[in-house]
Amino acid sequence: xxxxxxxxxxxxxxxxxxxxxxxxxxxxxxxxxxxxxxxxxxxxxxxxxxxxxxxxxxxxxxxxxxxxxxxxxxxxxxxxxxxxxxxxxxxxxxxxxxxxxxxxxxxxxxxxxxxxxxxxxxxxxxxxxxxxxxxxxxxxxxxxxxxxxxxxxxxxxxxxxxxxxxxxxxxxxxxxxxxxxxxxxxxxxx
Length: 190
Known about the structure:
By secondary structure, the chain is of the alpha/beta class. Helices cover 32% and strands 24% of the residues. It has five helices and seven strands, in the order H-E-H-E-H-E-E-H-E-H-E-E. Strands 3-2-1-4-5-7-6 form a seven-stranded mixed beta sheet, sandwiched between helices. Helix 4 (117-130) packs parallel to helix 5 (150-159). It is globular. The chain starts with 8 loop residues before the first helix and ends with a strand.
């Protein structure tokens, strides 16, 4: 269990993901960013698994590829310079064990470039079709500051509309944290 002083959105997401992903699994990092989640997924899927990572920024793709090389995990991942809203072009339906999203902007990058609800919701919809039965989708919703609240509001409204007969959606809140604490959410395919 994560220690409480380091218990945050990403720690919670990683804990849930680690309980779900197994060696040999196929995972998607829908927002590669600096590559930390891509590496985390590669470690979980082991030598027999595969990770597909997406980002629209060349800087993020280069950063992810460099981190994978540094960790000796390049053979487990394919990093694609493309929008997460196109992930259905890279994986067949019901083939993915886990999909990870971190909505917001690239850490240490250009804050004028950030995820937007139009492509993010389209990516979630595609991801739901790609998930295997019992598959997991993890969403870390970063908002406020430069990226504002529009995407957060749209994502939370959309999550309420997901078919409850096929999927379970859990949205968590760090209720007593100041400012705009990121929101962890999880979707499982039943």
